[in-house]
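Q: Could you fold this chain for me?
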Amino acid sequence: MRFQSLLLGICACTSSGAAVPDDVVAGYFPGRSADVVFKPVNHKPLDAELILVDQAGLLHRGNEDSLKAHNFADVVARGLGVPPVNSDFTPAFLGGANFFRRPRANLVLSIESLGANTLKAAKLPHFMALTQQTDVSPIKKANLDVLALTDISYPNHPLSLSATLFTGTKPYQHGIVAPEWQSSSGSKKIAYKGTASALSANVADIVSQSFGGKSLIVSFSGDEQHAAASCLHPKLLASNQNHHCLALGDTEEQLFGKRVTLSRDSLIKVLASSGQANVLTALRAFPSDSPASYSVDPRGLVTVSFQDQKGGTQKVVFDLHVDEDRKFFSELQGVHSIGMSIGSQDAEAFIQDNVPDLYSVTLTGYTALIEKYGRASTEAAAALHMLDNAVPMFVEHFSSHYPGRFFSQIVLMGSHSSTTAVDKRALFAKCQELVPGNNVASTFPSMFLAGENKNHVCTSISMALSKEFAFQAFCPSVSLVTPSFNAQTHARFLQQRNLRAGAPSPAKLTATPTTTYTHDEVATYQIVLWLSILMTFALFFAVIALCCMDFKKDPLLYSTYNPKWENRKNK
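A: Sure. Below is the predicted structure, expressed as structure tokens.
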């Protein structure tokens, strides 16, 4: 018996160490990640995609067809004219970006549980145009480019991917491995609550500090954690009074005097109205190749009629008293309200200044619908048709406030395994048989183990699942060699990283944080520099002109006054 335990322990060490795939290693953070990670044997990369919408002359056609997920933050930073997060990021497609030719605003619009495969199957006209499958773009005066998002860590938690996108680092660096995890003491930790925050600064932190806290920064999502992923760090709020972190909750929140997050009764009242504040009214007026009709009755029932791929008319009724339905419509209404609010007089001072603004929107309502009704349901199809019309409308609405100076990114976060219609109950039952009292149902595709013999348990699970369920179970440990954090690469972010709870102290890092300058300081420096150069050249040429002068008769002066020198000699 002791020999069998020893043999299993050796096998566990082998299978949980060297055999761990790179994407699992990149997604592992000691003290936060689970003990067991389940991964399908035939796992396919996430079908995440990035659509770049350029209305500021930044994009240059390059040969790139993909972008590493952690380089997304570099795209946003480079577009706004500040140094990228990763100093080795030199994209050819952003050749027109620099400090003096930057957009006045940037919009990041992320959609959870929507990927390239879903769009290909649905054949939605506006998304097909945005991904350059058709010639007519639904967004005016815009250059488009589409890149596949690659090098995404596993597990593919949407929140972990959001943190990677906005921080420019991987989970083993920023520490957001899941929406929640179990601490070493056994207590539950919720991401972005208290000390369970990201350990890397996000783009909002960098933009705010780069421009002296004058940038307007707005983050919105139906999920509080997704909103926090792109929010300004709490310790920077005192230096930036123009920051708004908005999420659906129990209270109604406003932006420039307009309500963005609404209660159920307020949402029903707004959607039933016919004014411009109603997102459904705006959708009816937006030109569309995929028309849909919407009607709302006072009871909170929203009827959506749309045309399916076979040419037939489908009708779906959503109930705003149902949490999942209300979340989807609340997010659409919230984004529309933000677009309306930044067009108000109260926001004019922020819109007209020369300091770039940053808007981040993450839509999670589609995930709620497909988890409740299924990805193949008519409710999910109706939601896709609404998103197909709403996304280009939102970009057009935001960009209208920054004509010719707007840059936006539409992030399709992919069809995550946790949100598909695959029945995982048999897998959960097997895990319950092997490890009674486990929490795999709430933490899948990860599982936390108790006790000291974790390797033995993990090996047993791996052997059982590989035969019956085509899954592999990996057991990363604290002793697992993870990719080393390159302090020099992230030197610009050391000052911001120290704001995060648990971040390494500067004494432990060899790089020295570089100084950041405000927009006014940079402008003053440039004015003084170029004026000094011009004056130096002017003085140089003036001296040369004086030194090269010769003494000769001036023809004009001589012709006007010509004394008779001969008569003077005779006298």
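A (continued): Confidence is low (pLDDT under 50) at residues 1-18, 418-422, 481-515.
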